[in-house]
Amino acid sequence: MLVHRDSLRADSVARAGGQLPGAVLPDSRIVAFYGNPQYKTMGILGQYPKDEMLRRLRAQTARWQQADSLPVRPALHLITVIAQRDSGADGKYRLPLPDSTIRRVIRWGQEHKTLVFLDVQVGLSDLQHELPPLAKYLRLPFVHLGIDPEFSMKSGRRPGTEVGEFDATDINYARSFLARLVSENQLPPKVLVVHRFRQDMVTNYQNIRLDPRVQIVMHMDGWGTPSIKRSSYRKFIKKEPVEYAGFKLFLRNDQRPGSRLMTPQEVVSLSPSPLYVQYQ
User: Fold this and answer.
1) What is the rounded average pLDDT for all residues in the chain?
2) Could you name the domain of life of the organism this protein comes from (predicted)?
3) Which residue, among 113, 95, 107, has the nearest Cα to 42 in the 3D structure?
4) Do the Cβ atoms of 37 and 46 come closer than 8 Å?
5) In the chain, what are the domains?
6) Strand-pair partners of 115
7) pLDDT digits over 40-99, tens only?
8) What predicted TM-score, i.e. pTM, was given to this entire model?
């Protein structure tokens, strides 16, 4: 069986200094369920009761393991800071999850040996304010980070009225934040997932700086037909490489009339082969 091992600049990073001990990538592929247990409509993580959701995750990772001999790591990708239509008391248009919910999902990950990603939608706030409260969780070796430019509203407009953006400076801040946690707590490298489905969602990508303590995944999370998704992947991931590549599959939107869900075999055959795959 072929091994589709990513990706892009990963080989040059390895040649420059090698992977640090405990790095998840590029010797594994992450398959994640995305969502929030408090909101069924936000993704499969919250669509089913815990045991059924975890059963489906195990079944899905088994399908991916059949598609490719690269070891598969299951993951729970929790939306931890949620963009809102209402401004909230501080006018920042975002709502952090209560600690009890975050701890509950982290406990699921610990008990079932899955990675956990904490995803941040900043609204009219910024990463400098939203990441520090998550440090106590990110100090755990199996907890990683996702950041969503779609809901980073630098224009000052309400989330959902237009697509937001992160600049390389924002992504570099997140990278530095994680790198410090790795060094200070003697952790294995962190994975940083950056969502992207449009050109203008990430600006000045060429200025994103790499660090072996943080493995950056540029994650194509647009929905549509297989041909549309392949085109977006070529335009926004392959043409603007950073380090590793990711790909999102929408269990509902990708299966609207006239479309279908791409198979694991089709996704691993993309160039570069995604090492982070997410189901919503």
Assistant:
1) 92
2) Bacteria
3) 95
4) yes
5) 10-16+23-279 (3.20.20)
6) 75
7) 989 999 999 999 999 999 999 999 999 999 999 999 999 999 999 999 999 999 999 999
8) 0.91
